[in-house]
Design a protein that fits this description.
single chain; about 400 residues; alpha+beta; 8-stranded antiparallel beta sheet; 5-stranded antiparallel beta sheet; 23 strands; elongated
Length: about 400
């Protein structure tokens, strides 16, 4: 069944036709018209109550339809999809944040239901569609020490002794240092950051980290989260590269477009680079203070069936809620291709090319750019894709439960 995705216009999204989200939405929904001055940040595909997809034609919410036939649509013992599928188009940085694990999510939801909207965890996977910049996890401790100690302003703000402890203290020392940073007084932050801005602007040979500092200062002024660039790994992902964010890993997306999939939740604990509510103490309590190099954060896919699916890479995280397959079929390489379906069904998003999906019962649906399709479990384990344009690459992303 074809779906109409749910578009989110958060302030950090790319504007108008520059947004990958807006381009997909225009192709996906004939009623959608992009405003050149409007940010289009996210396209949601799934049954989350905060942004449900609708069945094309009937206008019925996907979640309502799925609940009417549990066994045939999403497998036994389920009443909703276990995942939420998204596309993001990022013009300016998202907040410094972590996601709670399942037990912590249940506690936060019970205590603060207006802030933490559901009791589920939110591990997530991001796959770059364009050049994609993000912060992910703490840098190695020695690297943090070198960066922070190189700025007299940060030494004055955080204390030379506490910074020096990073050389031998590990996680405990980092926790104390980062906690001091996040609890810094506003006037001290203003003085520190403003002085650093002046020093960077006077440089003749700015680094990429200097440029990022100035961009974040332009967007967020003297927000404490700006200084996290010296603590967190800054990654530049090429299209097709991915990062996986389990519970309690600090991160922030900075710019670019990506495919994102996560457990079906919207729980976020924020503490910087945002006008939204900041729950600093909860974030500091939940954080994983493990330091590791940037290249260790690139998440590697696997090829599950090289014979029948040679052009499919699957990203399989450590949780059961979701997995994502990337299909990239070169022009003219084949006329038919196998797409695997899971016992819980899947959602397909077409990003390039044309084809026809043929299910086990003979049902057919045309596939082209922007098409979003939910394939229930009852339509078979192996689906046939008939390619319709030998001159172009066929690209699709497939979200599913991780029941391999």
């Amino acid at each position: 069944m074809e779906l109409v995705g749910n578009v989110k216009t958060y302030d950090w999204g790319k504007l108008g036709g520059e947004s990958f989200v807006a381009k997909l939405a225009t192709a996906n929904d004939p009623n959608f018209r992009a405003d050149p001055n409007q940010p289009y940040a996210e396209l949601w595909m799934g049954d989350h109550c905060s942004g449900p997809s609708y069945i094309r034609g009937s206008g019925e919410e996907l979640g309502k339809l799925l609940s009417q036939d549990l066994v045939g649509n999403i497998g036994p013992s389920r009443d909703r999809l276990s995942y939420l599928f998204k596309v993001l188009s990022i013009r300016k940085a998202l907040s410094i944040q972590v996601h709670p694990d399942k037990a912590e999510a249940e506690k936060l939801h019970a205590q603060f239901p207006d802030i933490y909207k559901d009791p589920n965890h939110k591990p997530e996977l991001a796959i770059a569609l364009t050049e994609f910049h993000a912060m992910c996890g703490f840098r190695p401790y020695e690297e943090i020490y070198q960066l922070v100690s190189g700025w007299p302003q940060l030494v004055q703000l955080l204390g030379e002794d506490k910074i020096r402890q990073l050389k031998s203290g590990g996680e405990d020392s980092l926790k104390e240092l980062y906690s001091n940073l996040m609890h810094s007084k506003h006037e001290q932050l203003e003085q520190c950051i403003s002085s650093m801005v002046g020093d960077i602007r006077s440089k003749s040979d700015r680094s990429s980290l200097d440029d990022l500092f100035l961009q974040l200062y332009k967007d967020f002024s003297t927000d404490v989260g700006l200084l996290s660039i010296y603590f967190l790994n800054v990654l530049q992902l090429k299209p097709g590269q991915a990062i996986y964010l389990p519970a309690n890993v600090p991160h922030a997306y900075l710019s670019g477009d990506c495919i994102e999939c996560m457990a079906c939740s919207d729980n976020v604990v924020r503490a910087g680079l945002t006008p939204k509510f900041k729950d600093v103490d909860t974030l500091l309590r939940l954080l994983s203070y493990e330091g590791s190099p940037a290249d260790s954060k690139i998440y590697q896919p696997v090829q599950l069936d090289g014979q029948n699916q040679p052009y499919t890479r699957t990203f399989i995280p450590s949780v059961l809620d979701f997995a994502v397959a990337e299909l990239k079929i070169p022009p003219g390489s084949c006329s038919e291709y196998v797409i695997g379906n899971r016992p819980s069904g899947c959602i397909l998003l077409i990003c390039s090319g044309k084809g026809q999906l043929v299910c086990s019962g003979g049902q057919q649906i045309e596939l082209n750019y922007g098409k979003i399709v939910f394939v229930p479990a009852k339509y078979g384990v192996n689906l046939k894709l008939v390619l319709k344009d030998a001159s172009s690459e066929f690209v699709a992303y497939q979200a599913m439960s991780n029941d391999f």
